[in-house]
Structure formats: C-alpha cells, structure tokens
Amino acid sequence: MTSLTDMTIAGLSALIGSKQLSPVELVDAYLARIAAIDGDLSAYILVTTEEAKAAARTAEAEIAAGNWRGPLHGIPIGLKDIYSTKGIPTTAHSRLLKDNVPSEDAETVARLAEAGAISLGKLSTHEFAFGGPSPDLFSPPARNPWNRDLQPGGSSSGSGVAVASGMCAGAMGSDTGGSIRGPAGFCGLVGLKPTYGLVSRRGVLPLSWTLDHAGPMTWTAQDCALMMEVLAGHDPADPASVNGPVPDFKGAIGRPVEGMRIGVAKAWHESADPELVAAIDKAAAVLAGQGAIVDEVTLPDLMDFHAAGRIILLSEGFAIHQRHLRRQPEIYGALFRDRMRLGAFISADQYIQAIRFRRTLVDQMNLAMAPYDAILTATQYGPPDRMEEAPVFPFFGKPYFTMPFNVTGQPAAAVPCGFYSSGMPISMQVVGKAFADDVVLAVAHAYEQAAGDRVTRPAIAGGGQ
C-alpha cells in the first residue's frame, strides 16, 4: 500500500477535496516522516511544527465548511531557505543571516498560503544559493536520498532531497545556473525553471538579478503544473515581473504531443555518460511513439553560454556580497567565500560585454529553436559526485547544460528518464520557447505517462519504505 508521503500532490488533493483525507492527518504523516529520516538526510534547516499543525487545523475547518480553495489546499510543502517568511527565520544557510527574521512573506510564499498550501519549514540550500555542500556551516548539508554518500545537487539541495524522500509533497527552489534542475535531476524529480519574469522573485534573496528564477520542484509534471497555477502571474512590486498572459497549466496536463516537433541536442552530449545518452535517446523514442516528430537540433556553442553566464553571475553576486566579503570574510563558509571572491577580478567592461553577448546568444537560440515546440538535452553529464569530492570551482570544468536557459530566460524542466546501472536517477531537460512553460510540462507529462516510471522512490533505512 502506498503511504501518504509517497503520493503526488494531485493524488493527495483528490482525497482532501473529496473529504477522504484530513489535512491534519496528512501534516502529521509528513512530520512523522521528517522525524524518522531527516537526521540522516539534513533536508530541513528548520521544521515549523506548530505553525504547520495550526495551518492544517484551519484548512480542515475550511474544507469541512465547504470552502475548499483548490488543489493546493491542505498540501504540505517546503521552502528553500532563501524565501522570506514572516516571523520565521530566513537564513540562506549562512551564519551571516542566522538571526534574520523577515517582516513579510515573499510573494510566492504569500500566493501558496493564499491557495491553502501548508509550509512544513525551511529547506537546506547551498549558502546563498551558491556555496556548494560546505561542511562548515551552522547546519549540515543535505544528502542524496538515493545514496547519502553522494551529493544531491544544488543549490536547491534540501528541496530536492525533501520531495524525493517524501518529507514534503512539493517544494520551492531557485535557479541561477541550474539550481532547480540540478538537484531535481540528481534526486529523481521534476523541477521547472519558469520563463524569466513569469514567477515573482520579490522576497527571494538574490544571487544574480538578471539570471535568478523562482520555481517548483515536485514528483511529477502534473504536480508542477498545479503549483504553477498558483505561482505564475504578474507582481507589480517585482521590476522583472512580466505583465502578460499566463500559460494554461491546467490544460497542459493531458495535452497530446502528437504533431509536436521536438529536437534532441545530441552534439551537446559528446562528453556525457553513455548510459545517460542512451536514456535520452530512449525518451525521445517514447515521445516519437506518441506521435511527436523528433529529430536532431543544432544549438549554439555551449561554452559561449557558460562564459557569458558565469561572468554575469559572479559580477552581480559579488556586487551583493562584496561589503561583507571585504570586511568579514570568515563569516561565510569556505566554498561560498572562495567561489564568490572571483567576482572581484571581473572588470566593468567584461561585465558589459557579457550582457551584450547575452543578447546575441538569445537571438541565436531563438533562431535554432524556431522550428521546434521543445528540445531535449541532458541535465547533467552523469551521476553525482561523492559528498567529500565537491570541487571549490566546479564551473572551471565542463560547461553546465542548464546555464544556457538562464542566459536566455526560456522555460526548462528537469524530467526523470530512467536509472543508471548504479541505481541513481537519470534526468533529461525539456526546454521550450519563452512563455511556453505549459508546452514544457505537456511534453514532460506525456513522457511520464508513456514511460510509466514514476513509481520507484529511494529506499531509506528507518523510513518505513
């Protein structure tokens, strides 16, 4: 029998909406799950037990009175600890903000609460969404639930771990160069980086103003769509928020891919693990079997996106943190401190040239994608590294498959597409045109339904699996 904490948001919502499941019972199940396994996984920095129980009682009373707010009403979620929460610490997993208690919620947090979602607490992150799995912070780094000796990816590490291991039904992450899609891929989830400007970032601690995205991480594409129904839309208080039509997320689920043209970026995968390449080819064949027109697409050079994106990220990140880095560098963890210091060596003209080059790259990607509804790429090169092998400068190696779509701002989702022979999840990236986030989730859902591989959860000792 499937436990409550292994169910999808959609499945739980159906039970709550029909009054077969109480939000109080559901929250209690998740809190028990956290108590049983998070000591080994460290997904949570803070569990807001009493607040969650009070919200569950309120949701139960509202639903009993016939005031069901919608699919997220009574659903337990987690928040990456860079999302401001009124009266509850928001630390960015850093000693610098260990005592920071915001006076208001982030816009996304407020929207989720208005929809009836129940926050279970604040989730582990790489320090300020950049520092890596640093062991010298005030709270330990999150560990991969499929193999706790391996990294879960970052920077939304706790979000990936919590959803994969059944410690919340959905979570919020942030993505500046792949920080939603990376942990979603390594933890076996769907993680959507929405189109830039579609989801408000007001109240989310920034890393790079022009590359940051806020978005959901869930077990399935349908669950992502349910969260996006609430999250998407204009926020006049966020200067980057776009005042325009919101994609039809509800209609995306079940939309056929027959007749869609989907490109596979095979040239990008020359250095990727052979098992990963084979899995993406198999996923492409599954979509072709559903009537999609699948062929190879030639995309701009991956290294160009890497160069532009890293210069922008480091320049803007250093601008945010330079005062504290100069005056009290020891307050940061070693990985964040050493990585972010690189921004001090980037000149103004280099930053401006990167911003200008970005425009060229956007035009090149738009031209390459013009004939396609969506494209498929890898999310990572292979399985995750061991926890103790986190490099100080990971971006000095191979360029990330995820960074191009922070540079362009297009919607991109990590979607599970099988397992390595080691048992670790394999992930592909589904990418759409700007503001075609619904198409991305339609392709992801169609693949999930045809492949039928969204059943296996990580086996965790002591977790009742």
Automatic annotation (TrEMBL):
Keyword check for Transport: no
InterPro entries: Amidase (IPR000120), Amidase_CS (IPR020556), Amidase_dom (IPR023631), AS_sf (IPR036928)
Pfam families according to UniProt: Amidase
UniProt KW keywords: Transferase
GO function terms (MF aspect): transferase activity
SUPFAM superfamilies, A to Z: Amidase signature (AS) enzymes
Keyword Transferase: yes
Domain Amidase per the UniProt entry, residue ranges: 25-441
PANTHER family per UniProt: AMIDASE AMID-RELATED (PTHR11895:SF176), TRANSAMIDASE (PTHR11895)
Name of this protein: Aspartyl-tRNA(Asn)/glutamyl-tRNA(Gln) amidotransferase subunit A
